[in-house]
Design a protein that fits this description.
Helices cover about 45% and strands about 10% of the residues.
Length: about 375
């Protein structure tokens, strides 16, 4: 009987040991799968805001109809459908990155990334004051620092450092510093008289250098820096500068080009000076300029007017709202409202950033950066 009991004990021990090995292997596979995922952290303005402004007192909101008409409902996205980062997130199987201020953006959710962007936000803290509340880039970085601490508390310092090292970071900001700061009629006219365009741009670049360096020092390594698009071509600028006629407005585009030239140099400077960094310069100005020039080849019928319009020749005088007229076929319009592209235009921009050549994004595209080892 003793021998039989020993045999049973030995057999049971082997079974238990085998089960433990299987469970350990399954746990390892699960952990490895989770660790190999890439977090997506998004900074910027209304071009990439996915709902942060829903939670602050501001005039810059998009959580009402007809915004989101092709998304299923209004979410706080300033377009009819998806933002550029939404589309890139889908393509790279990262999904939609949730807004930082949403009460559900807590716990394990933040390990996949967070969106800090805010409509009306800019590089300079004065930017967007006409809207009241907005989260400028300095405050967005403060919020990211809070997330970073939460990640460390959740998974430890070593794992947090690795997660941030492998994560994608994108910064889409600067347009508001011109449209809702330097070019704002009646608000900053005195500043325009005292500050030359070159001095203003220099101030933006100087501040942006500190902000991008801070982002690197907080652990970001793969950083996509998006330049300012041809803001003189948006319906708002066309309607407020009627002397331009059918053409884009020259001065705002000159400001954007002046900033972009310095920004490209800044990205190269940071790449050279910050060891281990992988900065990428995304030339959305060139991509949109191509779309405007060859809009019919891209399937668009209207490259200059707002789909959601209320007043103005180009529908650019009044923000999109419940009383606005909405075009039937949004896929034929480049612009959704006086300021922002449609989902259809965002698809083309996202595809060029994902897989474009050095003419669109340098020194590598988003897909290459996603798979690169930092």
């Amino acid at each position: 009987m003793a021998m039989d009991l020993n045999r049973i004990f030995i057999v049971d021990s082997v079974v238990v040991f085998g089960v433990c090995i299987v469970l350990a292997m399954l746990f390892k596979v699960s952990t490895t799968s989770q660790d190999s995922s890439t977090a997506n952290f998004v900074f910027g303005d209304s071009l990439v805001d996915v709902g942060n402004n829903n939670y602050i007192p501001t005039l810059s909101r998009a959580n009402y109809v007809p915004f989101g008409i092709d998304f299923g409902k209004p979410t706080g996205r300033f377009t009819n459908g998806r933002t550029i980062v939404d589309i890139i997130g889908e393509e790279l199987a990262m999904g939609y990155t949730p807004p930082y201020l949403a009460p559900t953006t807590v716990g394990p959710v933040i390990l996949k990334g967070v969106n800090y962007a805010s409509g009306g936000g800019g590089i300079l803290n004065l930017t967007g004051k006409i809207f009241g509340g907005r989260i400028n880039l300095d405050a967005q970085l403060d919020n990211f620092e809070n997330t970073r601490q939460d990640i460390i508390s959740s998974i430890g310092v070593t794992a947090a450092v690795d997660l941030l090292r492998r994560g994608l970071f994108s910064v889409t900001i600067g347009s508001n510093d011109f449209i809702n700061n330097y070019l704002t009629p009646g608000v900053t006219i005195a500043e325009q008289k005292l500050t030359t365009p070159q001095v203003f741009v220099n101030t933006m670049i100087s501040r942006f250098r500190m902000q991008l360096t801070r982002l690197f020092n907080l652990g970001a390594r793969k950083i996509i820096v998006v330049n300012v698009g041809p803001i003189g071509c948006i319906p708002n600028q066309r309607d407020t500068n009627i002397d331009a006629g059918d053409n884009c407005v020259t001065f705002p585009n000159q400001l954007a080009q002046m900033f972009n030239t310095q920004l490209k140099g800044l990205v190269a400077e940071l790449s050279a000076n910050l060891k281990g960094s992988m900065f990428v310069y995304a030339d959305v100005y060139t991509i949109l300029e191509d779309i405007f020039s060859n809009y019919m080849e891209y399937g668009f019928a209207n490259p200059s007017s707002s789909c959601c319009s209320f007043a103005g020749r180009f529908g650019g005088l009044v923000p999109c709202g419940p009383s606005s007229r909405v075009c039937m076929d949004r896929s034929k319009y480049v612009f959704w409202d006086p300021y922002h592209p449609t989902d259809a235009a965002n698809i083309f921009i996202a595809k060029r950033l994902l897989d474009g050549s050095h003419n669109d994004i340098y020194p590598m595209n988003v897909r290459q950066l996603f798979h690169a080892s930092s």
